Amino acid sequence: PPPVQLLATSSDNGDKTTATFDIQNILKLDNSAWQPYPEEHINLGFANHPIWIKIQLPDFLLPDTYLLEFANNKIAQIDIYTVNHIRDHQAPIPQMQLLESTPLSQRFIPQSNYIFPITITPNQQTTLYIKVANTYPLKLPIYFWDQESFTQKTNNQTFFNGIYFGSVLIMALYNLCLFFVIKDRRYAHYVIFIVTLAIFVALDKGLVIQYFWYNNPELTHRFYTLAISLGALSSVRFTMSFLSLQENAPKIYRGLELLSLCWVFILIASIFIGRHILPRLVFLCVPLGGTCL
User: Fold this and answer.
1) Which is it for the CA torsion 151, 157, 158, 163, positive or negative?
2) Which of 117, 133, 276, 279 would bridge 50 by S-S if both were Cys, CB 3.0 to 4.6 A apart?
3) Phi/psi of residue 31, nearest 5 degrees
4) What's the CA gap between 171 and 191, in Å, rounded?
């Protein structure tokens, strides 16, 4: 991951002000307005306004086309401005933009994550200014790849995804057979749990975008909270069934029944409530439900 800096917030330079800045305003800011981000990956939770990121590319990079990857497929909009320190100040600053609704066939690299080609030219120091807006928690793992490393990383991910989903399929079929033979509902609950978990993983990693709705990536946002709700509901029901809580711990059973009703409500609400509001409710309930379990 490249070292990144975030635009600092202060009484004179707050979120609401910087949200309206264009690139010309950003270039006029002093270096003191930028603060190095202390962690390896940016994780800011819910942000009410767009944030600005600055990446100073190192001088030792060889002239080539590199790939800047944002390893998160749930981002509303990313704008990247490439500024060379030796440039014509009258010329427009090169800009690249990707939206959550941009079909993969129209992206710079046809991947579910947001990937931008960055061309390094000789004897020029390059700085990237990035504006990011989102409705989900602002989690931004940023990577800077050369072409060969990116291809190797993609192949490794495909290999491990095949192992994971193949294992889930085998476990689901095996336990489904046990359910039909033994007639024990715990096996059915377990099958539903691991299948819904696999669906959530596929949505979260962008695999559904990659292989199913290639040209409608915004559909993932519609089904994301639905998958979280189904996964949480199935985990609660599986826990209740596997531990036989109705017989062994009736009070805990009643508490988890109430938690199940909460997830059913969120499940129904995900169909009708706008996705700009529902994610906050879901991510509020997830820690509470996890603590109860």
Assistant:
1) positive
2) 133
3) -60, -25
4) 8
Are the C-beta atoms of 83 and 140 separated by less than 8 Å?
A: no
Q: Which helix (H) or strand (E) holds 130?
A: strand 126-133
How far is residue 47 from each of residues 107, 114, 129, 149, 220, measured CA to CA in Å? Answer: 25, 19, 18, 32, 20
The number of CA neighbours under 13 Å toward the Cβ of 178 is: 14
Is residue 37 predicted with pLDDT exceeding 70? yes
What burial class does residue 283 get, using C-beta atoms within 10 Å of its C-beta: 0-12 exposed, 13-18 middle, 19+ buried?
A: middle
Rounded Cα gap, residues 112 and 157, in angstroms: 13
Q: Look up residue 94 and give its DSSP letter.
A: P
Helix (H) or strand (E) holding 98: strand 95-99
For residue 236 the two structure tokens come to 């609660």
Helices 185-204 and 219-242, axial angle in degrees (round to 10)? 150
Give the pTM. 0.79
State mean pLDDT over 216-243: 79
Report the alpha-carbon distance of residue 179 to residue 265 in Å, rounded.
28
Please identify which residue in the block is written with the tokens 């809580």.
245
> How far apart are the C-alpha atoms of 133 and 191, rounded to whole Å?
37
CA 240 – CA 185 distance, rounded (Å)? 11
Only one residue has tokens 């029901």, namely: 237
Report the share of the chain in percent with pLDDT over 70: 84
DSSP annotation of 71 reads -
SS3 (DSSP) at 5: strand
* Residue 7 φ then ψ, to 5°: -70, 120
